[in-house]
Write a structure and sequence with these properties.
Layout (H helix, E strand, L loop, with lengths): L2 E2 L9 H12 L1 H12 L1 H12 L9 H13 L3 E5 L5 E5 L6 E7 L13 E3 L2 E3 L7 H16 L8 E6 L9 H6 L9 E7 L6 E6 L1 E10 L3 E2 L9 H13 L9 E10 L5 E2 L2 E10 L2 H29 L10 E10 L2 E2 L5 H13 L4 E5 L4 H5 L3 E5 L4 E3 L7 E3 L3 H15 L5
Parallel strand pairs: 4-7, 4-8, 8-18, 9-17
Antiparallel strand pairs: 1-17, 2-3, 3-7, 5-6, 6-20, 9-16, 10-14, 10-15, 11-13, 12-14, 19-20
Helix pairs in contact: 1-9, 2-5, 2-11, 3-5, 7-8, 9-11
The structure holds zinc ion.
Length: 420
């Protein structure tokens, strides 16, 4: 869950308020907004249609193909899938730098999950309708309204339906974009659409590092091989020592041991034991410090146990070989926007113009990748209301979607029309 951050002292220059108000009255922009108002039925149709196409982690291709067709209908150019199966399309303009608008297309639901999507009044029910049906639909709405209103902008806009945001996807889609020489230095700012709503701005990237820790030993009979190093005991000692590592109150840093496994029967010395560890912080340094503590305590515990088993004489007929391994299974870099970042001032000015109240948040989203390398990025919702994310009871209500779409459009257009 995202958490509200304390820092919210963005001073918005008066010129930005004026520019927002001016932009909102341009005939093209008004036409785009009228498109939003008149086409909710089309949006709900896209949203339900897309949610019915499976997109489990590492299995997003069918949904990517669907999105590619929509990009074609909406007149984007240079439409293609990259080698990570992200779908890209461009709304061209004269400028050299791009502004990106992206939404992840993957879901948390494993392959084979029944995707029963149901519409009832203003609501859509079913897995993924909000996370990220709402985000992808908002991205399509912007492309459609821009086409209908013949919107012009100084910088080209890069539309991205990216894979691999959820869970073990580990942000691989957006990571791929920002490591591609074609894009990594040419995207000047990124607007990321994730989930429903208009009440948040993710401006801080909560980082995480995840590890599978395995301790292996020779194993043996509980009676006749007694004294042989026991991986479960060693892991338990390492776990306890690691859990005593002091943590700072700020920047908030946490750890969790979420899974432990090991052993086969009550009268066998196990051959292995493992645990899964999750470390989180907004500070990369703190995550590195905790990772070092984890590795250090593990090495120390293993070494102590080898010495102890040698003293016990367990090495006489069995080698006391004991080893450990730390396998990274997830790495989301941390980062945050500078308090005076232009993208933050823009969305603040847009919210003021629309009378929308939004809180700054710290969360783990696709924005982690650009934010961690000092680029300007925020993640916001696609409008409407949503609930039950990551459950089969997920729902989306289009009430208030229009506000969300206006918010996205006004922000995007200001990013794409930088002040001279
Ligand atoms: Zn999401």
């Amino acid at each position: 869950m995202p958490s509200a951050t304390q820092r919210d002292n963005t001073a918005i220059p008066a010129s930005l308020h004026q520019e927002t108000a001016r932009m909102a009255t341009l005939p093209q922009v008004r036409a785009a907004m009228a498109w939003f108002r008149a086409n909710e039925e089309q949006l709900a149709k896209w949203q339900a249609e897309m949610a019915a196409i499976p997109a489990p982690p590492f299995g997003e291709s069918p949904r990517a193909a669907w999105l590619k067709e929509r990009f074609q209908e909406l007149g984007l150019e240079e439409i293609h899938s990259d080698s990570a199966t992200n779908v890209l399309g461009v709304r061209p303009a004269a400028g050299k730098q791009y502004v990106s608008i992206s939404a992840h297309i993957d879901t948390v639901f494993p392959a084979g999950t029944p995707l029963i999507i149901r519409r009832e009044g203003s609501r859509i029910y079913g897995p993924g309708v909000s996370d990220n049906g709402a985000g992808v639909t908002a991205m399509l709405a912007v492309a459609a309204a821009a086409q209908a209103a013949k919107l012009s902008h100084a910088l080209p806009i890069l539309f991205i339906g990216n894979v691999g945001e959820e869970g073990e996807g580990d942000l691989r889609g957006i990571r791929h974009i920002f490591s591609d020489p074609r894009w990594k230095d040419s995207i000047s700012s990124s607007l990321i659409l994730d989930g429903a709503g208009t009440d948040t701005i993710v401006s801080e990237a909560l980082g995480s590092r995840r590890f599978e820790v395995i301790v292996r030993g020779p194993g043996g009979h509980s009676w006749s091989d007694f004294g042989t190093p026991n991986p479960i005991l060693v892991l338990a000692r390492a776990m306890d020592a690691f859990a005593r590592t002091p943590l700072p109150a700020a920047p908030k840093t946490t750890f969790n041991i979420g899974v432990i496994r090991g052993g086969t029967s009550v009268n066998s010395i196990p051959e292995s034991a493992s645990m899964r560890v999750d470390i989180r912080s907004t500070s990369t340094e703190e995550m590195e410090r905790l990772e070092a503590a984890l590795r250090g305590e593990l090495d120390r515990t293993v070494t102590q146990e080898i010495r102890a088993s040698e003293r016990r004489g367990a090495a006489k007929h069995r080698s006391p070989k004991l080893s450990s391994e730390v396998i990274p299974i997830g790495n989301r870099p941390a980062g945050e926007l500078a308090p005076n970042a232009r993208i933050l001032q823009i969305i603040r000015a847009v919210d003021a113009h629309l009378g929308n109240a939004a809180q700054l948040q710290r969360a783990s989203t696709d924005a982690n990748i650009p934010l961690s390398s000092g680029r300007e990025a925020i993640a916001i919702g696609g409008g409407g209301l949503g609930g039950g994310a990551h459950t089969l009871q997920e729902w989306f209500d289009c009430t208030g979607r229009e506000l969300g779409l206006k918010r996205i459009l006004l922000t995007l257009l200001q990013l794409a029309n930088p002040a001279r």
